[in-house]
Amino acid sequence: MAAQQLEWMWLDATETVTLSELARCCGMSTMELDELVDYKALPPMAPEPTQIPLMFERVFSAEWVTPLRKVSQLRQTYDLDLFTVAMLLNHMSRIEELERQVRTLEAQLAHLPKHGYPD
């Protein structure tokens, strides 16, 4: 039950996860995740100035849990290398951002007055 509660917490984008937690829940090694960071596909969170002496491990936004699980599964299914996984992760993030923009625009359009055109 505790693992299930932890998973729900991680799906909250305001939460953070350590590198080892992210590796464990996404089925990738910490070295693989470090490589995704090197490719700039997985940005770690910047530590607060007060946390710097306390930080022993990189920290990430929990919003990366779901996309990393998806790309990890695709990697295993299609035997993808990490560079391809990095590109896939970037494209998935961009698609999600564009879908969010479309939903915002659709919501704005719904509030505009409808203009009736004669048939």
How would you describe the overall organization of this protein?
The protein is mainly α. It has one domain (2-110): Multidrug-efflux Transporter Regulator, Chain: A, Domain 2, CATH 1.10.1660.10. 58% of the residues lie in helices and 5% in strands. It has five helices and two strands; from the N terminus they run H-E-H-H-E-H-H. The protein has helices at residues 2-10, 19-26, 30-38, 65-78, 82-110, and strands spanning 16-18, 59-61. It has a two-stranded antiparallel sheet with strand order 1-2. The termini are far apart.
The whole-angstrom Rg is: 19 Å
> Between the first and last Cα atoms, what is the distance in angstroms?
60 Å
Helix fraction, binned, reads 55-70%
Which percent range describes the beta-strand content?
A: 5-15%
CATH topology: Multidrug-efflux Transporter Regulator, Chain: A, Domain 2
Number of distinct helices: 5
Task: Note the run of SSEs as H and E.
Answer: HEHHEHH
CATH class assignment: Mainly Alpha
Report on the biggest sheet: 2 strands, antiparallel
What is the tally of beta strands? 2
Output mean pLDDT.
85
Q: What is the count of distinct domains?
A: 1
Low-confidence sequence ranges:
none
Strand order of the largest sheet: 1-2
Shape: globular
Structural class: mainly alpha
Q: Architecture, according to CATH?
A: Orthogonal Bundle
